[in-house]
User: Which sequence fits this backbone?
């Protein structure tokens, strides 16, 4: 048995988008092909997803919104065509069923870590972290991670969930769903300013009982591995240790990769491996198991290599720490893989210091 459970299904490629749309079936096809080419599919435990029920969806989404998606589905099936929900988000004849399957895949991921597995990777589309309670947005229909978080709280009695979102875009949907809820500590590392517009500034730090539990880490364009790791070591890690989560969930988007066509960050495949290694450290020190959810990533080759790097680290018995400014050793080729630098290191360092100062009013570990 592997330490990592992978939840996947070829059916996720049945959600269709217009030609040249970045969120295409090719994204998952590239990951599947890379798993086979590297023979990793033989070393991992694979699980098939199940559809989420309407009741499970309704723990996060409004009934009126779910019913509205059914209307879009009827339009798509009636004409066997693609129907726009907004300028970015589309419904094909099979999309509603596939979106329910994507949401249910996260529930299977939670079930797997409730058993013998230390972590799970939920390899699905459509992605989820932009989906609001009553609105589709940014390629996302259902907020897969949020639905799984509520499922874990109900089924496993978990009281504290740490969500780490490293997608290049701000996880506005997840933020909105948990903005007043201290039982879910949401932390998003994203390019800023970027998309969604005016979303993800650090002073948006929660409300009511959730004040201080919404942590935005807006990073300037050009932040590379060094800056991401610095933000992780100086903000993410101390807050997570202080919060003491019982479950860690990761919105694992790979569009901060330096080869991604939609963003301007400079993270390497090695950088994603190093962030995953730090997730494993947090898991070991807190005792919280890990469920990762595929979000963005629109260069198929970079996406596949980065997802496999994440899976490799999650399935490793003792992932080795590598610090910012060092290099990662590829154990298969024995090559040194460079860790990228920031285009504006002083800007990144100043931003991290600014964030530590702001959030120190809520977290004593940052003082």
Assistant:
């Amino acid at each position: 048995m592997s330490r990592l459970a992978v939840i996947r299904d070829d059916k996720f490629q049945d959600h269709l988008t217009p030609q040249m749309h970045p969120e295409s079936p090719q994204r998952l096809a590239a990951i599947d092909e890379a798993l086979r080419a590297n023979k990793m599919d033989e070393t991992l435990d694979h699980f098939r997803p199940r559809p989420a029920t309407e009741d499970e969806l309704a723990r996060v989404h409004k009934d009126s919104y779910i019913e509205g998606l059914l209307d879009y589905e009827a339009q798509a099936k009636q004409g066997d065509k693609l129907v726009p929900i907004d300028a970015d988000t589309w419904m094909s004849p099979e999309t509603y069923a596939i979106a329910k399957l994507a949401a249910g895949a996260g529930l299977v991921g939670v079930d797997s870590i409730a058993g013998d597995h230390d972590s799970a990777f939920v390899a699905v589309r459509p992605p989820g972290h932009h989906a609001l309670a009553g609105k589709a947005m940014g390629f996302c229909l259902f907020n897969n991670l949020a639905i799984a978080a509520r499922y874990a709280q109900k089924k496993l009695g978990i009281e504290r969930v740490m969500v780490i979102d490293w997608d290049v875009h701000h996880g506005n949907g997840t933020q909105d769903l948990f903005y007043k809820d201290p039982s879910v500590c949401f932390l998003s590392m994203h390019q800023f300013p970027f998309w969604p517009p005016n979303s993800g500034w650090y002073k948006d730090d929660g409300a009511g009982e959730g004040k201080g539990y919404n942590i935005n880490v807006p990073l300037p364009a050009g932040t590379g591995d060094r800056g991401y790791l610095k933000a992780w070591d100086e903000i993410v890690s101390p807050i997570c240790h202080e919060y003491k989560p019982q479950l860690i969930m990761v919105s694992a988007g790979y569009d901060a990769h330096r080869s991604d066509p939609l963003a301007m960050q400079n993270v390497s495949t090695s950088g994603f491996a190093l962030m995953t290694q730090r997730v494993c450290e947090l898991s070991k020190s807190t005792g919280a198991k890990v469920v990762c959810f595929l979000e963005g990533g629109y260069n198929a080759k970079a996406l596949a290599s980065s997802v496999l790097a994440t899976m490799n680290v999650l399935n490793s018995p003792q992932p080795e720490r590598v610090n910012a400014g060092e290099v990662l050793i590829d154990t298969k080729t024995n090559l040194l893989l460079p860790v990228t630098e920031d285009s504006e290191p002083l800007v990144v360092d100043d931003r991290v210091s600014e964030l530590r100062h702001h959030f120190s009013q809520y977290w004593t570990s940052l003082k």
Observations:
- The longest strand covers residues 184-191.
- The chain is about 40% helix and 15% strand.
- Residues 283 and 289 are 6 Å apart (CA to CA).
